[in-house]
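thought: fold this chain, then report.
action: predict
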Amino acid sequence: MADTPTLLRAMFDAAVSAAQPDRCVPANLPDPPRGRTIVVGAGKASAAMAKAFEDAWTGELSGLVVTRYGHAVACDAIEIVEAAHPVPDQNGLDAARRMIDTVGGLSEDDLVVALISGGGSALLTAPAEGISFADKQAVNAALLKSGAPIGAMNCVRKHLSAIKGGRLAVAASPARVHTILISDVPGNDPAEIASGPTVPDPTTSQEALAFLERYGVDVPASVRTWLADPRSETPKPGDVAFEHGAMCMAAAPAMSIDAAAAVARDAGFTPVLLGDAIEGEAREVGAEHARLALEKRAAGEERFALISGGETTVTVRGNGRGGRNAEYLLGHAIALAGIPDIHAIACDTDGIDGSEDNAGAWCDAQTLAQVHAAGGDPQTFLANNDAYGCFELVDRLIVTGPTLTNVNDFRATLVE
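observation:
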């Protein structure tokens, strides 16, 4: 049997492989239209989705897709634009405006294929009327530091946008819109994936204002003025723009968790699936999962694997480096307190943990002792939101580069 760190990495690799666009997109092609086929899309997986769609499609097509820097995949007929994530930049703004123009003026005979994956909220950034691009960037940055869950952040984003929250579908009407999704959100709600540019939005402007208050997000006056304006409301279920729309979930976190569980099972570990929609403060969820592992082992259970997905959050109070997966793992390791024969991994399936260059990290019983021996203090690292620095110190970071998919967090704890 492979050593435990190698097994953890094999489980993560299986999770990523299960959600690769070339495996899941071709099975979800729409019926060809009488008119034109226009492909649009946004997200960390969108360029790979565009390539998979283009390779499988037999008719003519054209289009525009925006992805994160470093995530481009060359296509023949579909233009790929790279932009910034998680804080939007000018490239994302220009691409969003061009995308609205691209789907304008179509007829009922035309087909718009929307390739949507996680990360699209930041990449599709067309501010609503009266809101400057700088204001939109500031709100996005403040939301990322607030500790607000993804649903709350997306509610605000949708109501400050000219393209998200179903508005791209309104721009494409009366064309038929076929949306292919790779989900990175707990619960797989299409309206939450990349803030749902082509699907109805059930949330309201008042809810967006309430979220800003609840999480203490300081916003420019223009934002509050717009959210109080009835025009800020997003298109709702029943809107004519969605009458001929269709959507399909090409890949979701549960598929990746099942693939990782199969690898653990083949290696002689009993998978214990904790769910694919876990949310909460990253360090607290990490500590909770550590306690669960210890409780199960104390009860006599042996050779099991706790596996989970979802999207935790980090309330930023320090000035260190590190995404939610590294922070989860540091909280996890501290709670385990060096107990032997327990190994863990936490990585983002897109290969980028937050805004760093690592997918995540792994730890074992020796990790914290090695941190101390190297002159570091795990609690100090955690207090400073510097889990990256902690795991970098002892060579426990996992660096994959962009994986070209995104079904959110993957976490596993192996108890021998």
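thought: worth noting. The chain has two domains: 4-14+254-415, 20-126+161-200+235-251.
final: tokens above.
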